[in-house]
Amino acid sequence: xxxxxxxxxxxxxxxxxxxxxxxxxxxxxxxxxxxxxxxxxxxxxxxxxxxxxxxxxxxxxxxxxxxxxxxxxxxxxxxxxxxxxxxxxxxxxxxxxxxxxxxxxxxxxxxxxxxxxxxxxxxxxxxxxxxxxxxxxxxxxxxxxxxxxxxxxxxxxxxxxxxxxxxxxxxxxxxxxxxxxxxxxxxxxxxxxxxxxxxxxxxxxxxxxxxxxxxxxxxxxxxxxxxxxxxxxxxxxxxxxxxxxxxxxxxxxxxxxxxxxxxxxxxxxxxxxxxxxxxxxxxxxxxxxxxxxxxxx
Length: 297
Fold this sequence. Notes:
By secondary structure, this protein is an alpha/beta fold. 51% of the residues lie in helices and 12% in strands. α5 (100-111) links the parallel β5 (91-94) and β6. α8 (168-196) crosses α10.
């Protein structure tokens, strides 16, 4: 395969992926709406592209690292989108968290143009993306994997191959998001109770992270609460979307998800209260009568 690869979307995960590909020796082209991010990318040895079409004209493998299905459609099929510029037998690696049905339909739409799709949502956060150690939940036909081998090896520490059917990777990702969202909501609830009861929050964090109640999300997100820093690494509104996808998928088969529904309502409350763009740990702000670290009220 060509050593030229394109990355559409240089957000927290996308920038890390682009860095990992550069480090692995790829000629990396990338586009993003933010000129300052592209300038930084160029200084690190990357090649900025003005739009997805320009990027796709020179890349056989294109990775989309955007937020949702609408953004995926826009960068692939919208004005100056990548798909019309892609040569036949090219590959799209789609990494957004989307409904499994959307991933399946995207694969069919691309196949009509002779383009391969790898349904490949990602997990692990910005730090693991930058170190090439994130987790990928992938599905797609053998021809897509054949084009993707070297790229996947540079992007991720773990690449799970979940079948030939597009949508299988997205199903596993939304189940992961079910747990991630519930764990963040439960972590916020636990810390809110501790604060309400007058427990020292730093001591509570220390105890829980060395006890059976710990989770990866508790250990990763509670420090944001302790610092009073809600700079978004993953925003509240991401979990409004992702838990919504979880519930929509389960609704299709009439499957009850009571904990997911409760967590979704918590993130919805936080978003409605004006915290949608803050770090997802800001879901703790929905609890009344609690003075948070770094807050005067």
